Amino acid sequence: MEPGERIVIIKADGSLLVHRSTGYEPVNWMPGGNTFCSVQTKEQTLQIRVQRKRPAEAVNVIFDEIQFVASLILSDAGEFSLYASEEDMQKAVLLKPELLEERFKPIAYEKKVEPGFVDVYGEDKDGKFVVVEIKRRTAGKEAVMQLARYLEAVRGRTDREVRGILAAPGTGKDVLRTLAALGLEYKHLDPRKCAETITRVSTRKLADFLKGS
Amino acid sequence: MEPGERIVIIKADGSLLVHRSTGYEPVNWMPGGNTFCSVQTKEQTLQIRVQRKRPAEAVNVIFDEIQFVASLILSDAGEFSLYASEEDMQKAVLLKPELLEERFKPIAYEKKVEPGFVDVYGEDKDGKFVVVEIKRRTAGKEAVMQLARYLEAVRGRTDREVRGILAAPGTGKDVLRTLAALGLEYKHLDPRKCAETITRVSTRKLADFLKGS
DNA sequence: ACGTCGATCTCGAAC
DNA sequence: GTTCGAGGTCGACGT
């Protein structure tokens, strides 16, 4: 790679990004994860080497000149939202059924039906059965199909009316249309609110970050 | 998007990158190009808005707190290669035919033949005619086809042997194979060297950058 | 201008 | 672990 003035970012997970003055994509990079980073000075240059095992490859960055350096530790709320796993969201719905809808009564979770396990299974205010499929993040078509299969299985075992609800922080393209076409419903479910429901600790910490240290 | 400590980069082309402390991908972004950027302060926050027309969308960045700011102008060799337009590269080959090959003698440029205009037209050291197609960046299949058409046209007007040369800084996938299959040749032509040939000014500047100010 | 396709794709989730 | 599908994919190429 030819020399030029660049912005180099080394992240906490070992990711390396080399950016030019234009363009969305980095001109060179190394994804985070199984990376090993080493630094040395050599003939008036600073050399940084980042390598990984699989695939076996390495990126060497050679600094002839350094305009400025900054070292930061970023405290990011996003890392906390990782704490809201699909399991946490399930627990949250069980603890606070109104997150899903008013007067919803959970009956079972991880209930075995033919194709697999239903995330949450319950009863709505009118006594209709409700099958809930929960996704941690944007739900795609496969989530819809999963829900549809479970719904089919449950309907085969009862004469009562059965509703199917897909609960996720968002939906992919066409998912809402597909749901409507199959007579299914969508409910927005925020992973962060779910996390707050099962533990208040992380909220407190988040507030600290916003006020600054 | 939930708040957290981030690294925000606004590039010269209007690209916006918002990075977290981990991962290759930006957590939010706006590609460069048709973007319009505005800044305002509001209720103790700094707000940056970047929007584009097609697709119609915008990204708002709200700073509750700023750890540090840096404004840089990056002088990158890549930008200099922009200064070497296809026309410049053509001039460079005319001024310094050895950029293409030893003892190449240009006869005409932008010469009209049936399908359009041949970039450079000349004669090699053995007296064979040479048709040159120049591309300022990575040449794709369409460049090969263009060259092939011109070559066909020229061959129809002479009994002398005619060579076809594609000159570019690089080639796309399969282009070299296609060239070989059609009996055409490829010559690496560096836009930067072409730019240096037609004017020494930029070279001097680049050298300054590398040595530091 | 709009679709299709490749990428050092990256990034998860399912299996 | 490996494979598979999605992405606001981005960019390049073809029509």
Give an overview in words:
The structure is a homodimer of 213-residue chains. Chain A is 26% helix and 32% strand. Chain A is α+β, with helices and mostly antiparallel strands and 213 residues long. A five-stranded mixed beta sheet of chain A has the order 7-8-9-10-11, sandwiched between helices. In chain A, strands 1-2-3 form a three-stranded antiparallel beta sheet, with no helix packed on it. Chain A has a three-stranded antiparallel beta sheet with strand order 4-5-6, with no helix packed on it. In chain A, a hairpin with a 5-residue loop joins β8 and β9. The first copy, chain A, is elongated and about 80 Å long. The C terminus of chain A is likely disordered. Chains A and B meet through α1 and α6 of A and α1 and α6 of B. The structure holds a DNA duplex (15 and 15 nucleotides).
In short:
2 copies of one chain form a homodimer. Helix content of chain A is 26%, strand content 32%.
Q: How would you describe this structure in keywords?
A:
homodimer; 213 residues; alpha+beta; five-stranded mixed sheet; three-stranded antiparallel sheet; 6 helices; disordered C terminus; DNA-binding
